Fold this protein.
Amino acid sequence: MGPATIFALASGAGRAAVAVLRLSGPGTAAAISTLAGTLPAPRHASLRRLRHPHSAEVLDRALVLWFPAPASYTGEDSAELHLHGGPAVIAGVAEALVAAGLRPAEPGEFTRRTFLNGKLDLTAAEGIADLIAAETAAQRRQALRQAEGALATLYGGWAVRLTALLARQEAFIEFEDEDLPAGLDDAVTTTAAVLRAEIQAHLADAGRGERLREGLLVAILGAPNAGKSSLLNALAGREAAIVSARAGTTRDVVEVRLDLDGVPVTLADTAGLREAADEIEVEGIRRARRRAEEADLVLVVFATDQPPDAETMAWVRPGALVLANKTDVAPAPALVGGVVPIGISARTGDGLAALRARLAEEAVARAGVAAAAPLTRSRHRAALTEAAAWLAELEAAPLPELRAEALRAGLRAIGRITGHVGVEAVLDAVFGEFCIGK
Ligand SMILES: Nc1nc2c(ncn2[C@@H]2O[C@H](COP(=O)(O)OP(=O)(O)OP(=O)(O)O)[C@@H](O)[C@H]2O)c(=O)[nH]1
Ligand SMILES: [K+]
Ligand SMILES: [Mg+2]
């Protein structure tokens, strides 16, 4: 039995002018013929009445697009139905497709089939998922490059070089007694060291690609009434958090999303730090500290009309930004805990443009697009770290057999990233070209 023929709503849920149902699998042509009467010409938009296969009731007048295999997204026979985007239309056509023998797709099933049909590797599939999730322009660019194969090319290239090394090492083992070019064994070690340096340089990117994909967390911390919630609202441009003159207003962490020069940032407002008696406030302060510990950047807020408190001073650490709020009441001090604070007034807006520019600078430094093909996932990082460790092992290994084993393990680690784990198959191909007189 071949794969099931599947369908799913490819457009967003909810009412819209147009909704797109996507079909894929060997039963696509039959299903389209059943619903639309005949199969339209491939890759031409054709307007058709869609009927229920049992009742023959007309469900919609829709655009039908037919993509015979292999020239389709999944590589299988596929089709798109562009319906009027109402919930009853979508439900009616979905039911008709089930009556025609199709089943609803599982999450990711279309792209999974695309991968299984060899149309993209795992990194490109992940790039497509990231492209759909992208909230900012910088995220979109990074995701698009990955979807178009930037990482597949980079990691695939390393896999090819490792395979060639392995072929040489295997040849050395197999033909040890014969006349081999002098220094073949040494050359393996030297080349492996070069490759390891490249992988390590790629790993040593301070996690910028991963941060851009996931977004940055910036936490606002400070004493009660320092103006933290006022600052959050001013940066968000809306009244997201409650502001009041009563100390201890904020309890839960309040988050807003910001786009800082293309870097998605979650800005978190927290409860004011102090020795609290109220158990709810104590919990709020615990959450505030935890969020600040997790944050990529902490904004430590003091009010210019209050002396700096010890609780907040403890957060004046390297990497944190120190803010002096309420410059409309009193001027910002020259130094707070040895650091020059950024003077702002959340009330009048004084200094906020400069603060926003500084935040964007910090965000881009931590998550800006660094390389053309940056590392974007911890899954990739783990596998590449493993591959580099195997190469280090190879360089130290005393025996050719151990070196070959390390190469094979390193190749498997990289193969896990791209989904091309068939080491033996690649070896066959390379060995086929390896002319050593046998
Ligand atoms: N004059 C002046 N008042 C401010 C400024 N920013 C905030 N305030 C006032 O300070 C008081 C406390 O502001 P909030 O934003 O609630 O302070 P908070 O740090 O979130 O306080 P908690 O949630 O209680 O920890 C309110 O009355 C604000 O209107 C400012 O820049 N200038
Ligand atoms: K307050
Ligand atoms: Mg508050």
